[in-house]
Write a structure and sequence with these properties.
15 strands; 12 helices; seven-stranded parallel β-sheet; alpha/beta; Rossmann fold; four-stranded mixed β-sheet
Length: 341
């Protein structure tokens, strides 16, 4: 019997990659997306080319529409909730839109799941931004990066939450609602606190998807601005590894239900956003890259890399694609698809 998946935001970067994977293994998939992102139409065209017309269902709808969400979730077994507003900077300039898309949209999704009567599995794409600036955590400055002084394995799920920026607040509200619907209603929900995800089909822009944006700008000769000192560190995770985590959580839902997992590259896949990324990118490009400099942006952490040991222990998951391999793969994809940019 086929499992029916509902993927909100299924025309986006992560969503289209997951839909592609699900269709490859013969699953029934329904995409719910308002198609507001720049790459959405291109991703849908790609899915149709890869799998054929009518290979998946599509509802052009908004997660802020509770009636639409109820209809979409009425007959599904798994909901992967990826839709929402995704950029910190956008949330600062338009906090109401951010709140409605992320907090109310997630609430609508949960209510749709509960009211369906089918008790579907819910995978929620949360963010490491729920941990805030972590100002109380001691840092050490090294020649090319910042690092945690004491958190050798990175930030654990037990780190106190401290929502920074409207984006952190709206995603954090969704994070906690998803957790509580498991406690109060018995809905099998799983929260994935994701780090920097990158990979093909990512049409990165300056304020979201920085790995892809830097590569796209370098290949296309577009201006680049580095905010802060460029030594800020992130753990990056290739989208294929993220999708493996989704699959593992669904397969092991008896363990994963009601749980929160950090899903990132972990301490083995960290990179400073410019002082360490720049030489990798210049080597791939075969040329030097000139950049402009600007002050730190609101909510920008000097360091974040996740302790992913809980996911490894409970889900049997860990990243397979290393930084160098993943960055080269994305660079080659951008070069081969210049017409898309």
């Amino acid at each position: 019997m086929k499992i029916k998946y509902l993927v909100t935001g299924g025309a986006g970067f992560i969503g289209s990659n997951y839909v592609h994977r699900l269709l490859n293994r013969g699953e029934q998939v329904l995409i719910y997306d308002n198609l507001s992102r720049g790459g959405a139409a291109r991703n849908l065209e790609w899915l149709n080319q890869e799998h054929g017309e009518n290979s998946f269902g599509l509802i052009v709808g908004d997660v802020r529409d509770s009636t639409g969400m109820n209809e979409a979730a009425a007959e599904v077994d798994v909901i992967v909730h990826l839709a929402g507003q995704v950029a910190v900077t956008t949330s600062v300039t338009n906090p109401r839109e951010d709140f409605e898309a992320n907090a109310i949209g997630t609430f609508n999704m949960l209510e749709a799941a509960r009211l369906s009567g089918r008790n579907p599995i819910v995978i929620y794409a949360s963010t490491n931004k729920v941990y805030g600036g972590m100002e109380e955590v001691a840092l050490v400055e090294e020649p090319t990066r910042w690092r945690y002084r004491d958190l050798a394995n990175g930030c654990p799920e037990t780190q106190p939450m401290d929502f920074h920026s409207p984006y952190g607040c709206s995603k954090g509200a969704g994070d906690q609602y998803v957790r509580d619907y498991a406690r109060i209603y018995g809905l099998p929900t799983v929260v994935m606190r994701q780090s920097c995800i990158y990979g093909p089909r990512q049409f990165g822009i300056e304020d979201q998807g920085w790995v892809a944006w830097f590569i796209i700008a370098a290949v296309m000769g577009r201006p680049l601005t580095i905010y802060g000192d460029g030594k800020q560190v992130r753990d990056i995770l290739h989208v294929d590894d993220l999708l493996d985590a989704y699959d593992r959580a669904i397969e092991r839902i008896s363990v994963a239900a009601g749980q929160v997992y950090n899903i990132g590259g972990g301490p083995g896949n960290v990179m400073s956003v410019w002082t360490e990324f720049r030489p990798k990118l210049e080597q791939l490009l075969g040329a030097s890259i000139e950049v402009a400099r600007a002050d730190w942006r609101p909510g920008d952490q000097r360091v974040f890399y996740a302790d992913i040991s809980k996911a490894e222990r409970e889900l049997g998951w860990k990243p397979k694609v290393g930084v160098d391999e993943g960055v080269q793969k994305l660079f080659e994809w951008v070069k081969q698809n210049r017409a898309l940019f």
